[in-house]
């Protein structure tokens, strides 16, 4: 039987995180991707002599079993190329088991550890499975007096595409149109930036100005984590119609983190064509075992695209590890927004 009282530990750099936590990541590479990928990237940078940025924290809550210490809640407060990330929380426990009394007992000491580790201004939002995020925000508000924003920033379904379920098919064509699907190059940066800005404009409060979108485009292109769908119309118009970015990557799993189509090129199937091509690249050419993503509950069109490519749990049918996640923001007057 596991111990009743959880053991909570805080680490300020990934290289200090113990092996039992990495084993949990490795055993759950898809569902932990939102924390695992950045922690792994930062640890590998540390191993090359680049220290982790200050002000970060990874907090684990573990139970003692006959087999030893088992972490089953992991929280990250980390930094990315574009700024501070939200507080991410991952649990190995199934969503159906997350009763309020269990969550309170597990998350209260984690919130207390976070309160001691970072400034309250740093905690601008929390993203986790619905019940986890809601309970953590309730506890955090009691600690800090900082209330949540009236509306959630993001409410989405986490979905996964195992390689065996990928629905590959020949690239569809439209009469008179020429299409090319490929990794973005340095020459594409200004047009990729325009699409990054367009995507961010739909993601309030995480919008980007021209300088911010150019910075993000340079990061995506230089890291080879963005593909583009170019198009030429019968009337001679040409441009980048869509982009797909995949910025959270581990040895076995990649996460699609941005899909956006220029409004001038919609209704041509560009997003689905490019998502399918990127999944083919990641699963069949790069050898990833799964691709994962989040899709907003209200975005039925995007869910339809992903479902046709093979992503699970987007047709109302339950699927293992496919759960609803919510990002709850905190009073913007009292926190400092990051970007993700």
From TrEMBL:
Superkingdom of the source species: Eukaryota
MF GO annotations: acyltransferase activity, transferring groups other than amino-acyl groups
Boundaries of every N-acetyltransferase domain copy: 179-329
Protein name: N-acetyltransferase domain-containing protein
Taxonomic classification: Eukaryota, Fungi, Dikarya, Basidiomycota, Agaricomycotina
């Amino acid at each position: 039987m596991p111990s009743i009282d959880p053991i909570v530990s805080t680490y300020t750099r990934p290289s200090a995180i113990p092996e039992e936590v990495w084993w949990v990541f490795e055993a759950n590479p898809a569902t932990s991707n939102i924390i695992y990928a950045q922690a792994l990237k930062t640890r590998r940078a540390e191993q090359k002599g680049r220290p982790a940025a200050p002000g970060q924290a990874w907090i684990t809550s573990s139970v003692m079993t006959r087999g030893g210490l088992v972490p089953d809640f992991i929280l990250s407060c980390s930094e990315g190329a574009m700024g501070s990330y939200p507080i991410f929380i991952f649990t190995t426990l199934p969503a159906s088991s997350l009763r309020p009394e269990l969550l309170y007992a597990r998350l209260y000491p984690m919130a207390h550890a976070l309160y001691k580790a970072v400034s309250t201004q740093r905690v601008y939002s929390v993203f986790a499975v619905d019940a986890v995020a809601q309970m953590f925000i309730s506890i955090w508000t009691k600690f800090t007096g900082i209330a949540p924003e009236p509306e959630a920033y993001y409410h989405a379904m986490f979905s996964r595409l195992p390689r065996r379920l990928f629905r590959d098919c020949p690239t569809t064509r439209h009469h008179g149109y020429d299409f090319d699907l490929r990794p973005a190059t340095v020459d594409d940066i200004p047009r990729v930036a325009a699409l990054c800005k367009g995507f961010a404009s739909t993601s309030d409060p995480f919008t980007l100005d021209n300088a911010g979108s150019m910075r993000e485009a340079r990061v995506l292109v230089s890291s080879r984590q963005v593909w583009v769908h170019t198009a030429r119309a019968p009337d001679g118009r040409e441009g980048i119609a869509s982009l797909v970015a995949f910025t959270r990557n581990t040895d076995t799993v990649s996460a699609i983190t941005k899909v956006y189509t220029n409004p001038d090129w919609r209704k041509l199937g560009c997003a689905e064509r490019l998502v399918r091509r990127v999944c083919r690249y990641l699963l069949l050419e790069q050898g990833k075992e799964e691709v994962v993503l989040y899709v907003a509950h209200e975005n039925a069109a995007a869910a339809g695209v992903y479902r046709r490519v093979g992503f699970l749990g987007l047709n109302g049918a339950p699927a293992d590890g496919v759960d609803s996640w919510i990002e709850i923001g905190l009073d913007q007057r009292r926190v400092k927004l990051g970007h993700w």
